[in-house]
Fold this protein.
Amino acid sequence: MAPPLVSVPMKKKKKPSLVLTLSAAGLLIGAGTLAYWLLSQRQISSGDLLVGANIIPGDALFAVSLTTDPQQWQKLRQFGTKETQAELDRNLVELRDRFLTNNGYDFQKDIAPWVGDDVTIAILAPATANKAVPKPVTTNEDAASDQQSMVMVLPVKNPEIAKNILAQPKTLKQGKWIDRIYQGIAIKQSEGQAGENFSAALLDGRFIVITDSPKATERAIDAYKNQTSLATTGGFADNFPKIANDQPFSQFYINVPTAAKIAAASPNRPIPAQVLAQLQNNQGLAGTMTLEAEGIRFKGVSWLNPNSQRVLTVENKAGQMQTRLPAETLMMLSGGNLQRLWGDYVLTSQGNPLSPIAPEQLRGGIKSLTTLDLDKDLLSWMKGEFSLSVIPSSPKEGSPDNFRSGLVFMVQGSDRNSAEASIKQLDDVMRNQYQFQVQSAKVAGQPVVNWVSPYGTLTATHGWLDGNVAFLVVGAPVTDKIVPKPNNTLASTIPFQQTVPTEPNPTNGQFFLDVERTVKNFPLPTLISNQQSLLDATRSIGMTSAVSDSRSNIYNIFLALKKVSNTTPLPSPESNKSNSAR
C-alpha cells in the first residue's frame, strides 16, 4: 500500500476555510483512529526534529509530518474493527486519489524512488493574523496574503530523480507551467488554473517545497535563508526533542497564540480580549504518534511563551492513588495537588466562555449549597494527591439496585484538624438543611460517616484512609472495596499496567479508563461523531503527565486497541476508476 499523503500540484476551485483545513489536518494525524522534529542550527539529532522545520515560516499556524513507510500505514490499518478499518480505508483512498492519482502520479513509481522517510505539511496563517489591526483588502495580492496557505516539505534522498521530476512535471489539465527565480532559487509554477497556482522548488538539493500560492513559496524561501523558520521559534528547539522517537508515524505542532488570534477574529464565536491575552502566555503544543504492538502512543509537550511572566511550579507528587483502589475500578483520574490545580484553572478560565465551569459560578454554587467557602474551607487543606474514580457495585441479594457504581473522591490532606472542622460543618448542613440522617458507622473496623437520605437510601459515605487521606463515596455503597486497603489493587491489574504509561516519572497526574467494560455496562453520552465505532475499537486508555520545567508540561498517552484479522490491501487506483464507471 502506498501512503496517500504526498502532495503534488493539483487544481482547486477555491481555497478551503481554516476550519476545514484544520479538520483535514487532524484527520491526517489520526487517520481515522482518533484524534510530532526540527532541523535547527544546534547540534541536535535529526531524529529529534520535525522534518523541514528550518523551511516552514516561524509564524506557521500548524504543521504535521507523516511517515512514507508503507509498512507503518499497513500496521495502522490493522488496528480497530472491520467498521473502523473500512472508514480509514475510505479516507486513505480518497486522499491518495485526490493528491496523486487525479494528477497523474503514482506513489511507488513517481514519489517513492526519491522521497525521504517523512513528509511535512504546514498551514500558514493569513498575514493579517500576525498584525495588531487587520488592513482592508484592496488588491488581488492583498487578498492572497489575507488567506491561509499550505506548504509541503518533502525531503530528498535521491537528488537526480527529484530534479528530473521537477524538470518534467506532469501536464496540467488546465493552464501551463512557468519558470521563475526568487532569491536565486528556481521555481516551477503553474499559471492559468482556476483558483490558486501551485509552486515547487528544490532547496539545496535536499528538500522539495510545494505550496499552493507564490507568496507562500517566497515566505518559505525567506524563512530558510533568513533563519526565521519554525526552528528558531521561541521554545521550539528546547521542547521538541522531549517527545522525539526514532520511527514516528506522525508528529505535529500548533502555534497557540496565532490560532487564538484567528479564533478571536471569527464572527461566529469571537474570543474575549481577556481570554486572548491569557492565551498569549502559551506558545506551542506538539506531539508524536507512534504505532506499537497493542495500540497507539502519543507523547506531547506544551510550553509557555519565553516572554511570558507566567511560570509553572515543578511539583510531581502523584502516582499512589491506584494502589488504594480495587482491581475492578473502571476509571481513575488523579493529580498531585488539588489546590494548585484549582489555582491554575482559575488563572486560565476566568472570563473564558469556553471553560466548562466558570470559577465564580462553582464557588457560588458550593457556598449556596453548603455554606462552605471553596478556597478557605476546602481547598486550603487539599494540597496533596487526589483522585476521582468510578467503581462498579456488587449488588447484594435483596438490596435495592439504585446505583450500578460508586463515584469515589480521595484527597491527601495537609491539615487534618482543618479538614475535620470543614467536614463537620458539612455534616451539619446535610443534617439541618437537607434533613439527611448523619450516622456514625464502621466498615472493616474503621470509623466512617454515612449520609442517608430521607427516603432511607444510603447516599454517601466519608471517612479517612491511612490517617491523612480523606474519601467520599457517592452513589452505590462501595466503601467496603476501599476499606480496608484492597489486596488486589488497580495498580496490579494487567490492563492498567499495559495501558497507563510508566513515564514520565515522577508524575503529577494519571488517567485510566477501561473502555470495554465501561461501554458494556454503562451508557455514555455522545460527544463526537462516530463515537460508538471508535469506542468499539478501543480496549482502554491511559495517560501520565508531569511538569517538565518552569515553562513546559509533558504528556504520555496510550490507546490500547483491538485488531482486525486478515486485513486486505487498499483498492488500487485502477479498480477504483472501474468501479466508478459502472
Summary: Confidence is low (pLDDT under 50) at residues 1-47, 132-145, 578-582. The CA atoms of residues 185 and 448 lie 77 Å apart.
